[in-house]
Design goal:
This protein is an alpha/beta fold. It folds into two domains: 118 residues, Rossmann fold; 181 residues, NAD(P)-binding Rossmann-like Domain (Rossmann fold), CATH 3.40.50. The chain has eleven helices and twelve strands. The strands form two sheets. It has a seven-stranded parallel β-sheet with strand order 8-7-6-9-10-11-12, covered by helices on one side. Strands 2-1-3-4-5 form a five-stranded parallel β-sheet, covered by helices on one side. Helix 1 links the parallel strand 1 and strand 2. Helix 1 packs parallel to helix 11 and helix 4 packs across helix 7. It is elongated, with a radius of gyration of 21 Å. The relative contact order is 0.12.
Length: 321
């Protein structure tokens, strides 16, 4: 098979990819994406391939009837979630997979890290270390908290959320969740998304793992921030578009929320003069929650595994279409 890639790889990773692909022919884009968060550009080479890996342009997928298997290098797939693209892939007997399994563990660990850091007041200690270098023992000790006994609400219980449940279990927290269509086999009490408003007042921690799209645009708005327990902490590892950022800033200034940990924002990169950077108790990581040192080795392994399964007609990992 001819495999098109617009993933920019180091020489060592390219050698690994070619070795793992075996007899398959690799066609590399002349305009590879430096980051898998970038939108791929139209490329004539993609219209001659049987497989696409990376972030192929939607038009290239639609216009190439040979292209039957697409392996994305992101967990999100908003721009590919289109009726015409789904119909085209189904008509070819093809499939499109995201890379959720690559990012499940790092994203869940990222939330756990943020949660523990806030409870133990690490941001306050670091601010002191990098500024006045006082010894605020009393104030930090007296405002530190235990996670034990607190309630976590996970909005969007998918693979990341279920791994987060596993990580939080030793802390004996109460964990509840929402998802679009609960199946009944979830590891914690899980409700449909329509129940979000009723659940928000119960939570000490609200973890937003929702994807982007019209259905979730600014879902976390002023009304929902007002419904949260005063002093609750908000985490966004989903998409920046799911949050009304001016409403979040207002809620933080009003003291409605005790903290906000944001790995995603609108826009990205967040401009240096954006108000979020200086909003009290807002802590920002640069869309790095999914990152880890073996990230692209994991992508290569996922591509190879799914290629083998696709060729044998077996169930694919992370299939979304």
């Amino acid at each position: 098979m001819t495999i098109y890639s617009n993933v920019q790889l180091s020489p060592g990773l390219m050698e690994m990819l070619l070795r793992r692909l075996g007899p398959h022919r690799l066609v590399q884009s002349v305009v590879p994406t430096a980051s898998n968060l970038q939108v791929g550009q139209p490329d004539p080479a993609a219209r001659e391939a049987d497989v696409a890996w990376g972030q192929p342009a939607v038009d290239d997928i639609l216009r190439n009837p040979r292209l039957r298997f697409i392996q994305l290098t992101t967990a999100g797939y908003d721009r590919y979630d289109r009726a015409d693209l789904r119909e085209a892939i189904h008509a070819r007997g093809g499939a499109l997979c995201n890379a959720s399994s690559v990012y499940t563990e790092p994203c869940a660990e990222h939330v756990l890290c943020q949660m523990m850091a806030g409870a133990r007041r690490l941001p306050d200690a670091l601010r002191n270390q990098f500024a006045d270098r006082r010894w605020p023992q009393v104030e930090i000790r007296s405002t530190s908290r235990l996670l034990v006994g607190q309630t976590v609400l996970i909005a969007g219980l998918g693979a990341i959320g279920q791994t987060l449940v596993e990580l939080l279990t030793p802390f004996h927290m109460k964990i509840i969740a929402t998802r679009r269509k609960p199946r009944g086999d979830e590891p914690v009490a899980t409700y449909s998304q329509e129940n979000l408003d009723a659940l928000l007042p119960q939570a000490d921690h609200v973890v937003n793992l929702l994807p982007g799209g019209a259905a979730t645009k600014e879902l976390f708005n002023a009304t929902r921030f007002a419904r949260m327990k005063r002093g609750a902490v908000f985490y966004n590892i989903g998409r920046g578009s799911t949050v009304d950022q001016p409403a979040l800033i207002e809620a933080m200034h009003a003291g409605q929320l005790g903290g906000a940990y944001l790995d995603v924002t609108t826009p990205e990169p967040l401009p240096a003069d954006h108000e979020l950077w200086t909003t009290p108790n807002v802590f920002i990581t640069p869309h790095s929650a999914g990152g880890f040192d073996q990230e692209f080795e994991a992508h290569i392994e996922l591509l190879v595994r799914n290629l083998e399964r696709f060729g044998k007609g077996e169930k694919l990992v992370d299939r979304v279409v």
